[in-house]
Design a protein that fits this description.
CATH superfamily of chain A: Formate dehydrogenase/DMSO reductase domain
Largest interface: A-C, 68 and 76 residues
Number of strands of chain B: 0
Shape of chain A: globular
Helix content of chain B: over 70%
Distance between the termini of chain B: 15 Å
Largest sheet of chain B: none
CATH architecture of chain A: Up-down Bundle
Oligomer: heterotrimer
Largest sheet of chain A: none
Distance between the termini of chain A: 8 Å
Shape of chain B: globular
CATH class of chain A: Mainly Alpha
Number of strands of chain A: 0
CATH topology of chain A: Formate dehydrogenase/DMSO reductase fold
Chains: A mainly alpha (about 475), B mainly alpha (about 400), C alpha+beta (about 180)
Number of helices of chain B: 18
Strand content of chain B: under 5%
Chain lengths: ~475, ~400, ~180
């Protein structure tokens, strides 16, 4: 029984008839464990540098939050007529990024896309941290953060209950449920890997720490069966959950009557945009980290190529939605609606609009060419464009519609303050810090699931039969 | 997989001479013609006949389009599991050219159906309709309709023809390049399909009320195509199995087809509800006109709307949830047939109320009756073409390089 | 005082484990299990146990969550705090759909994971198998069958010999 050693060249030659291998370099089961666990057990110097940088940014965020809470939200650029400025842009930006992880875990799982196993763990972690960043913005945006509990359906001294007809309350429920379910899903996926780390531990401290979170997992196949069914159900419910969360975020805008906000395509359009931006961020993180942590045999070029295809698909769907909005704004012959769109494309924010269109619709089209889908540095650059484009999409939607609505006398131009910039830049510090801690303590690729997609994992694999027959 | 099953040859998966299925096309075609004739004579006048015809046409068209989309998606995602069921869907794509014939009465009746904007007499003095005349005018509308039929027939023919031509290729390398060709073609096909179905939905259904608009409308039509097309595929597969054909299609494949139908039923509900919900919530007059025609205490469409919500979503959502339902042939057949019936109500709810737009007409039971007849008739025609194509080639693309993967595949 | 808890046999790969499981099943053992670093496809057939009951937990929790969520909103909007907002009726059900859905989902997730843990009797920080040093590779690249001494067919020597006859590369009696 011999296992073929696959290389990157085998994958790139990959044809429709042969399923290109997902694990390269001839790794066996133990090899996969060693490769992934090594990232945790032998920290890289560059990791300390990344953590230090993230902490520096995080401290900026900390300072800005203190100023916002102390002084009030007037320190932001939110002025009449734009009371929803950068904080809500950042909220939608981060929550959008937080969609790829659960998409990869759930939807690609249901579609039996085996390549997801190389990337799902880090994408799910990214989801969680993006949701944390997203939640931080509305939290400070309420101003008096000590009254945050008013969101909860609790009786209070004024006998006033939350208004369940308010999209903002739905948002609170949607994002909290999404964060909780993503965390449960992610943790469930981690349990067998924590058991692996427990059994490899070289110190008592690690043994106890990993042992506690491994819940006493012992690889029992009776357990695996219930575990797999539970995982399948979680995937099944997470799929509509992912769709619902960004749909509900879109309701924040679409239930209003504001031109440019109220349009029926918003829910699926926001979902497509969220997946698009989430995959952009996954690529931005994974391209350097597969290199730094020597994981190129597990997070292979084929994984990267498939992500490029999804970016191309969702980018094109976003383009369809932009086109549809524009077309219907004209077709509807509502002068306010038409004006809102002409104003977006040719008004004072035209620069932002065309950044959005270029980054989200035009630039990803290069992924039609295979060369661009398989060259990491090109993908990296394009993924950065995607991140930029999706931030500008939310900026364009929120700010252009608010600056010029029905009453020309109250039109204005929005300018951010230094605190706005500090909060936005600082939120990357929060994200980066959490991500750095994650790669240091949790296996950043699912050890278990990578093994499942190896051909030796199938008890009916040909190699075993050949061995039995004495070849 | 270790236990390789022997791959079928083209002869083994061809419908034998004199088999029940070879008689199906004729039976269906006769049924279709009779039902269409019945619908024609049931209708009270040209106006309601035209609308009923449109309902039937969109119904049959969405079924064939859904199957075409199924084929495109399987190629684009390079899916292995679906090889044994794909040919059945490819054959339904060949019904798309035939739809052109069924479109002729609509073309002849265009001045009546779309009179609100196509008829200059009607449109004059309405600034909103005059404003969109650059898009909604007879000439451009005709050109667009031609483009849709060229795209659909072209795609349907391409994917069927290329796949069938592969059956007779002995050289594996050459067969592989044919699969590769369809894979490559599938990506632009998605773009063409998306745009053509969207604008067809705008042109033929949304513009019935030229004042009303919804950016979601194209997505709604797409969702309906998928539900009905995939359900149609399921019905074909299950009946074929009951007739002793396609032993290669096992419960694993049925499970997957069932999951597709189930998922798109939920997607349809998501899209339809979101469209209603946003219009209801914002309550803007130019949009609520759509639901004004369809809701209200004494409005018969109110109950159809409730029916759609409960019967097109609630019931199948709960019924088709267990995996045993999707893996049981009789249960899945029931679910697919049921959804095909409900899809008619969805289209009727969207199209028929426009009959009363700006006209003082008395609702009669002959209107839905003739729409049902047309829908059954045109559906039967689409099915007849599909079943006829089934007899023209092997039922499985036997030279597809992923065939062994498809036959060995198991769900978790 | 150490006690023999059971026997542990190691196999070389998933295929051998799979075939060994079929034989243990056919030999009529009840208190036994197999262990692998990842789920093995189709092993429930080789081991002969029924399909999981986790979906029932999911269904019951999910329906309860959704129904409870809807009832909560109706009660708050019509009884506890009746306010007319944007001209909508007090019981405007479409507006309650998003939160109903979200509460249904979170309860399903909790029910699924709770049910999985309950059926698997987890967390369980002590298990007799953890006495075996060799068993540590069950989370890396080891494939094991364990038979507990509580089984009615248990017999130290006989069971070990039986496991060896299945082609195990190593058989040990776990004490502790």
């Amino acid at each position: 029984m011999t296992t073929k050693v696959y290389t990157e060249a085998d994958q790139l030659r990959g044809d429709v008839h042969v399923r290109a291998p997902l694990v390269l370099g001839g790794l066996d089961f133990n090899g996969v464990t060693e490769k992934i666990a090594a990232v945790i057990e032998k920290p890289d110097k560059r990791w300390f540098a990344a953590l230090a940088f993230s902490l520096a940014l995080l401290s900026i965020y900390g300072v800005c939050i203190v100023i916002v809470v102390w002084e009030g939200i007037g320190v932001w650029g939110n002025r009449a007529p734009v009371y929803w400025g950068w904080p809500i842009v950042n909220f939608v930006f981060w929550i959008g990024i937080g969609h790829a992880g659960t998409l990869i875990s759930a939807i690609l799982f249901l579609f039996r896309q085996k390549w997801r196993t190389g990337i799902n763990r880090s994408a799910e972690a990214m989801t969680l941290f993006a949701v944390v960043c997203a939640l931080s913005f509305p939290t400070i945006h309420v101003g008096r953060i000590w009254l945050l509990y008013w969101f909860a359906p609790l009786p209070n001294q004024m006998d006033v209950w939350p208004n369940f007809r308010s999209p903002l309350l739905w948002d609170f429920f949607a994002v909290s449920v999404y964060g909780s379910v993503s965390a449960l899903f992610w943790f469930t996926g981690c349990v067998p890997d924590f058991a692996t780390m427990r059994d490899r531990a070289d110190t008592q401290l690690k043994r106890i720490a990993y042992g506690a979170v491994a819940l006493g997992w012992r690889g029992s196949n009776r357990h695996w069966h219930n575990y797999e069914v539970a995982y399948l159900i979680l995937a099944g419910i997470s799929t509509p959950l992912v769709l619902s969360v960004h749909s509900i975020v879109s309701f924040d805008f679409a239930t209003s009557q504001l031109p440019g906000w109220h349009t029926t395509i918003f829910p699926p359009y926001f979902v497509a945009g969220a997946i698009f931006s989430g995959f952009g961020m996954v690529m931005t993180l994974l391209i350097p980290s597969r290199k730094i942590f020597d994981l190129e045999e597990i997070i292979t070029i084929r994984h990267m190529e498939n992500m490029c295809k999804i970016i191309l698909l969702t980018g094109t769907m976003v383009g369809y939605a932009y086109g549809m909005e524009f077309f219907i704004a004209w077709y509807g012959q509502n002068p306010y609606e038409s004006f809102a769109f002409v104003n977006r494309a040719f008004g004072p924010y035209a620069w932002a609009y065309w950044i959005m269109i270029s980054c989200n619709v035009f630039i990803p089209q290069v992924f039609w060419i295979k060369k661009f889908r398989t060259t990491p540095w090109i993908m990296f650059i394009i993924s950065i464009f995607v991140n930029i484009g999706m931030w500008f999409e939310r900026f364009v939607i929120i700010v252009t519609s608010l600056t010029a609505d029905f009453l020309p006398s109250s039109w204005g131009y929005f300018s951010p303050t230094i605190i706005d910039v500090g909060c936005f830049v600082g939120s990357f510090g929060l994200f980066g810090t959490l991500y750095c801690l994650f790669v240091r303590f949790v296996p950043q690729v699912s050890i278990t699931e990578v093994k499942v997609v190896m051909e030796q994992a199938d008890p009916h694999w040909e190699g075993y039969h050949l061995a039995e027959e004495g070849h | 997989m270790g236990h390789r099953k022997p791959l079928p040859t083209a002869e083994e998966v061809t419908i034998p001479q004199g088999h029940l299925w070879t008689k199906l096309p004729l039976v269906l075609a006769v049924t279709g013609v009779l039902a269409i004739a019945a619908g024609w004579f049931i209708a009270d006048d040209d106006h309601s006949r035209n609308y009923a015809w449109l309902t039937g046409f969109m119904y049959a068209g969405s079924v064939a389009l859904g199957c075409l989309f199924f084929v495109i998606v399987q190629h684009a995602s390079n899916a292995g599991w679906s090889v044994v069921v794909r040919r059945v869907a490819e054959c339904a794509g060949m019904a798309l050219p035939v739809l052109l014939l069924l479109f002729i009465p609509l073309y002849l009746g265009r001045m009546d159906i779309w009179s609100h904007w196509m008829d200059a007499h009607h449109a004059a003095g309405d600034p909103i309709i005059e404003g969109k005349a650059a898009f909604l005018n007879e000439g451009f509308w005709t050109i667009r309709a031609a483009v849709y039929f060229i795209i659909w027939s072209g795609l349907g023919f391409f994917f069927w023809k290329t796949s069938v031509s592969q059956d007779s290729i002995a050289d594996p390398e050459a067969a592989r390049s044919v699969t590769k060709k369809m894979n490559t073609m599938a990506y632009p096909a998605i773009v063409l399909f998306g745009l053509s179905t969207t604008f067809a939905a705008f042109d033929w259904m949304m513009s019935l009320d030229p004042h009303w608009f919804s950016t979601m409308f194209g997505v709604w039509f797409f969702a309906g195509c998928c539900v009905s097309g995939f359900a149609f595929l399921g019905v074909n597969l299950l009946l074929m199995k009951k007739a002793g054909l396609l032993p290669q299609v096992n419960e694993e494949h049925l499970h997957d087809v069932g999951k597709f139908v189930y998922a798109f039923t939920i997607f349809w509900a998501y899209i339809s509800f979101s469209q209603f919900f946003l219009i209801w919530y914002a309550n803007i007059p130019e949009e609520t006109t759509f639901f004004h025609l369809r809701m209200g205490e004494n409005n018969p469409w109110q109950s159809i709307g409730m029916l759609l919500m409960i019967a097109h979503f609630g019931i199948p959502f709960l019924l088709a949830m267990p995996r045993t339902v999707k893996r049981n042939p009789s249960a899945l057949l029931a679910v697919c047939t049921y959804l095909l019936v409900l899809h008619f109500f969805d289209l009727a709810y969207t199209i028929l109320p426009n009959l009363f737009l700006g006209k003082h007409m008395v609702p009669t039971s002959t209107i839905p009756a003739s729409a049902v007849c047309f829908a059954i008739g045109m559906f039967a025609i689409v099915w007849a073409v599909t079943a006829f194509m089934h007899t023209r080639s092997a039922l499985i693309p036997v030279k597809d390089p992923r065939l062994s993967e498809s036959m060995a595949f198991t769900n978790f | 005082m150490s006690k023999v808890h059971g026997a542990l046999a190691e196999f070389a790969n998933p295929a051998e484990l799979y075939h060994a499981c079929e034989k243990v099943r056919d030999a009529g053992y009840n208190d036994w299990d197999s262990h692998s670093p990842f789920p093995i496809h189709g092993i429930e057939k080789a081991m002969g146990f029924a399909w999981s009951r986790v979906p029932w937990f999911a269904l019951v929790f999910g329906l309860t969550g959704a129904a409870g969520g809807f009832a909560l909103q109706v009660w708050i909007s019509t009884v506890a705090s009746p306010l007319v907002i944007s001209g909508k009726p007090l019981l405007s059900w479409p507006a309650y759909v998003p939160v109903t859905f979200e509460l249904g989902i979170i309860c399903t997730a909790i029910g699924t994971l709770g049910g999985m843990c309950l059926l698997n009797r987890l967390p369980a920080f002590y298990h007799w198998l953890f006495h075996s040093k060799r068993f540590e590779s069950a989370t890396d690249d080891g494939f094991f069958i364990s038979i507990e001494s509580t089984d009615s067919k248990w017999d130290s020597a006989g069971t070990s010999a039986f496991l060896e006859s299945l082609g195990a590369s190593h058989v040990e009696l776990v004490e502790g």
